[in-house]
Amino acid sequence: MIAQKPPQKQKEQWQVDLATSFSSLPAFLDYCEINYDDLSQEYLASKDFRFFVTKSWASRIVKGKVNDPILLQVLPQPNELIQKPGYSLDPLSEQQQSPIAGLIHKYHGRVLLTLTGQCAIYCRYCFRRNFPYQENQFNRANWENIISYLKENTDIYEVILSGGDPLIMGDNILTKIVSDLAAIPHIKYLRIHSRIPVALPSRITTSLIKILKMTRLLPTIVIHSNHPQELNNEVCEKLRSIKNANINLLNQTVMLKNINDNGKILAELSHKLYQAGAMPYYIHRLDKVAGSSHFYLTPHQENKIITELLSLLPGYLVPKFVEENPNAKAKTPIPIKF
Questions:
Q1: Which strands form 320-323's sheet, in the order they lie side by side?
Q2: Is it the case that residue 2 has pLDDT exceeding 90?
Q3: Strand partners, 158
Q4: Residue 293: Cβ within 10 Å count
Q5: CATH top-level class of 94-333
Q6: Looking at residue 7, what is its pLDDT?
Q7: What are phi and psi of 80, to 5 degrees?
Q8: What pLDDT, on a 0 to 100 scale, did the predictor assign at position 6?
Q9: Could you tell me what percent of the chain has a pLDDT over 70?
Q10: pLDDT tens digit sequence for 128-176
Q11: How far apart are CA 126 and CA 327, in angstroms?
Q12: Which of 6, 132, 288, 303 is least crowded, fewest Cβ atoms below 10 Å from its Cβ?
């Protein structure tokens, strides 16, 4: 008698959505109704840093618009191949701040875990585009070492799940991670940095929210959105479901040339975030990672944009304008000149 194979578990919708994402440049550009006669330089850029875009994200791109702010964040460009002085592979010196594989301990009281190198979309300005994820991702050996490190360092009160994108991991793995962290008495807070609520909103399921609601740790999700066009009805609905579950919800933005270099755009973003339940948290100055120089704004340009933003919003909707310096003990506020 031939043994029958056990039935395969049916994939969840978000896993189907992820599996059907765009990984082909021609197919993506055809969907966007944008024609390129020669993609050779874009292909070279995508070999240096992966191209991958969900269909949900692509659906928000205005068809035929070559300077669309959603498109420009994910489209490999020839400018990425230009080497510029002052831009490096590891602009925040994170590899020097990693005492064990998969863990970065830079600031007092908190550590960051690089659980995976996979994302739902690959933002072309990503400061970890050259990070050695192969040695620093979630596996049994790394996890056992991380738990031991956390137990030994009793001054650590917050663990940040990052990557890549930690929410790209399945519920079973996330349940184990959250459970193991909650078993360490001195850890109080759990923070998740994720682009997925914006880039792959179908991942925000009732089961995922339950994982975060059931832990004794106080959870916060920090999303990443740069432009109000990213926040369509589906995304806003998912953000509200997180907020309604009493999970703290914050947003980080990176200031980017030709994408959100305008006070009115950033003000609209703050309004949309707040209406969806997310508080504007940080606006980051671009980290100077190699391949991102075409997104750079001068300090004078930044100052003009933030000054305009301050004039348009009440104080509670103005995110802090900061930069991250490799050797600083915290994010550094950037002063504004009026």
A1: 103-107, 110-114, 158-162, 189-194, 218-224, 248-254, 279-284, 320-323, 332-333
A2: no
A3: 110, 189
A4: 19
A5: alpha beta
A6: 58
A7: -65, -20
A8: 55
A9: 98
A10: 999 989 999 999 999 999 999 999 999 999 999 999 999 999 999 999 9
A11: 20
A12: 6
Residue carrying structure tokens 């300077």 = 67
d(CA 319, CA 273): 11
Helix or strand run (H / E) with residue 42? helix 40-48
Q: What number of other Cβ atoms are within 10 A of residue 70's Cβ?
A: 22
Interacting residues of 127 by C-beta distance below 8 A, sequence separation 6+: 91, 92, 287, 289, 292
Q: How far is CA 247 from CA 178, 190, 206, 217, 220, in A?
A: 14, 10, 13, 11, 6
Domain boundaries, the chain: 15-81, 94-333
Nearest residue to 223 via CA among 304, 182, 172, 277: 277
Other CB atoms within 10 A of residue 204 CB: 21
Instruction: Report how far residue 238's alpha carbon sits from residue 14's, in angstroms, rounded to the nearest whole number.
Output: 13
Percentage of the chain exceeding pLDDT 90: 93
Residue 329 has pLDDT above 80, yes or no: yes
Place of tokens 């991702």: 137
C-alpha gyration radius of the chain: 20
